[in-house]
Amino acid sequence: MVLLSHDMVGTGDTVVLLHSSVCDRRMWDPQWQSLLDAGYRVVRCDFRGYGQTPVPDAPNNNADDVRELLDALGIEQTAVVGSSYGGRVALEFAARWPNRVSALALLCAGSPHHEPTAELDTFDAEEEALVDADDLDGAVELNVRTWLGPDADDETRERVRGMQRHAYDVQLAAEGEYDQLEADCELSTITARTLIVSGKHDLDYFQQVAIDLADRLSDARHVQLPWGGHLPSLERPAETATLLKDFLNASS
């Protein structure tokens, strides 16, 4: 078993932060202290092949990895906050182990139950072409342009460049490439109170997912951010922290 690289600080109710596939656990730096100051025990981790967690040496499932981390830390129940791909993992986790999730916050999340749009397929093809051509700088810039909204400042854009480039370097240096194991899960099993956040400037796929999830989940509220791109926690950190704390406080 590979335990995900992680940080855990604080002594209150637990909040687990799951990162976007454009980033790693450092994307939560802007919210870290704010959540601690609000009295939460905060956990964040790197998925395999991101940050400080090595690439998988066999097919794996990220929701399983999160469960194994929480088991190792002795955490039986937690609020879960997921950004983008981390939101997709959070959805799966909450569906497969609903009793372990006290609250669920999804920031521009993906979903296993929603087919990619033409716009998302175009991005994937452009990124793949750049990586295949060994133009990693170009691929990084494509990601920064696509995933950060107009409110992101230069420092934030540079931060995302660093995290995305690190992910490319780690993943492309690996000898093997392993797919994620798919797990059967029904979103109807999710019982946690859920906050669904979308950005007006995000790709159409993620906006459609937000609407779909608000309809599918039994106790969900959808908030669209008129200023938001795909990574609101980095674009307006303080405002996103307040949004999360208000939701978590109401759930506790």
UniProtKB/TrEMBL annotation:
Q: Which GO terms describe its molecular function?
A: hydrolase activity
| Domain of life per record | Bacteria
Q: Which residues form a coiled coil?
A: none
- Where is the AB hydrolase-1 domain positioned along the sequence? 14-154
Any one GO CC term of the record: membrane
Q: Which UniProt keywords apply?
A: Hydrolase
Against Pfam families, the record matches this protein to: Abhydrolase_1
Write the protein's name: Alpha/beta hydrolase fold
Q: Which organism is it from?
A: Salinispora tropica (strain ATCC BAA-916 / DSM 44818 / JCM 13857 / NBRC 105044 / CNB-440)
